[in-house]
């Protein structure tokens, strides 16, 4: 008696499912490309315009003889961009040097110590972020006028500190709250004082949050326009105001404005490249887990 052996049948391949997956992957790639083009095409065109000669500014050609005359012009005596550049750097550097240490100490105190009216104080800090900037312009202008501080970098630093310190306190406190207090207590038992605990334990663990607060405060201060427009006139003018100098009676000097725009965003790009890893960690983690 012979035994019939049945071979296993091959599974039918669902070609429709495979084709739909391929179609979805193609659509995803196309969407990503469209987003990249939408985001980077203006930047690409600004870079091209910055190196274009005067005769090529209003053309759509991407092949031309590049020149550095636009950068020489903006740093020349006609626009004196170097002076405004140094003003912006001074304002940002001093603002960050004051904001970050003050916000770390304040957020640590609010996170670890019990104090009367603590919740009200935290609400007042948060409420400062809800006030429109335009509301503060006239009081600050009147105050600096009476003190003889108009058109000074010190006035801009004071104004920026009023916005960056409350923001940095709230942001940094969220990271410090997630750091286990047991680690600090263990270091205290081993003989470390409060400052040693803060320097050797809390700061390394809260580094992503501190870097994130520094980045946002840098961007806020570097791009500040409204108060600079009202408070400054000539000596303390910063880069955001200086960019408007390229709009005159003859129209917009697009090639010089593009060159100044590249110079304006360059510190932000360099700063982000230096701290990108810690910044991404701080944005994604939201604290120490």
In a few lines, what is going on in this structure?
With 289 residues, the chain is mainly α.
Characteristic terms for this protein:
mainly alpha, 2 domains, 289 residues, MetI-like, MetI-like fold, flat, MetI-like_sf, Carbohydrate ABC transporter membrane protein 2, CUT1 family
Description:
The chain is flat, with a radius of gyration of 28 Å. Helix 1 (15-50) crosses helix 12 (254-285), helix 3 packs parallel to helix 6 (153-177) and helix 9 runs antiparallel to helix 12. By secondary structure, it is an all-alpha fold. The protein folds into 2 domains: 15-70, no CATH class; 71-285, MetI-like (MetI-like fold, Orthogonal Bundle). Helix content is 70%, strand content 1%. It starts with 14 loop residues before the first helix and ends with a helix. The chain crosses the membrane at residues 26-48, 84-108, 120-142, 154-176, 197-222, 253-275. This is Carbohydrate ABC transporter membrane protein 2, CUT1 family. It is found in: Cell membrane.
Furnish the topology, listing elements before pairings.
Blueprint: H1 15-50, H2 69-74, H3 81-112, H4 118-127, H5 133-147, H6 153-177, H7 181-189, H8 194-205, H9 207-222, H10 226-231, H11 239-242, E1 247-248, E2 251-252, H12 254-285
Antiparallel strand pairs: 1-2
Membrane topology: Multi-pass membrane protein
Pfam families: BPD_transp_1
Keywords: Cell membrane, Membrane, Sugar transport, Transmembrane, Transmembrane helix, Transport
């Amino acid at each position: 008696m012979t035994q019939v052996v049945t071979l296993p049948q091959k599974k039918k391949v669902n070609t429709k499912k495979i084709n739909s997956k391929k179609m979805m992957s193609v659509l995803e790639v196309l969407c990503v490309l469209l987003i990249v083009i939408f985001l980077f095409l203006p930047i690409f065109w600004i870079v091209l315009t910055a190196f274009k000669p005067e005769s090529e500014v209003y053309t759509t050609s991407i092949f031309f003889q590049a020149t550095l005359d636009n950068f020489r012009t903006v740093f020349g005596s006609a626009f004196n961009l170097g002076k405004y550049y140094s003003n912006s750097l001074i304002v940002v550097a001093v603002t960050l040097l004051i904001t970050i240490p003050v916000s770390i100490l304040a957020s640590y105190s609010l996170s670890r110590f019990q104090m009367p009216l603590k919740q009200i104080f935290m609400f007042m800090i948060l409420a400062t972020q809800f006030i429109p900037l335009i509301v503060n312009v006239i009081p600050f202008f009147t105050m600096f006028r009476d003190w003889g501080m108009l058109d000074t970098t010190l006035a801009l630093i004071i104004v920026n500190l009023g916005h960056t310190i409350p923001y940095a306190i709230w942001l940094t406190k969220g990271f410090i709250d997630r750091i286990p207090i047991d680690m600090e207590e263990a270091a205290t038992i081993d003989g470390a004082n409060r400052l040693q605990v803060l320097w050797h334990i809390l700061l390394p663990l809260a580094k992503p949050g501190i870097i994130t607060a520094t980045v946002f405060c840098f961007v806020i201060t570097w791009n500040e326009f409204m108060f600079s427009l009202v408070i400054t006139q000539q000596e303390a003018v910063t880069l955001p105001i200086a960019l408007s100098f390229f709009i005159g009676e003859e129209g917009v000097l697009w090639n010089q404005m593009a060159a100044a725009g590249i110079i304006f965003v360059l510190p932000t790009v360099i700063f982000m490249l230096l701290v990108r890893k810690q910044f991404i960690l701080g944005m994604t983690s939201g604290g120490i887990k």
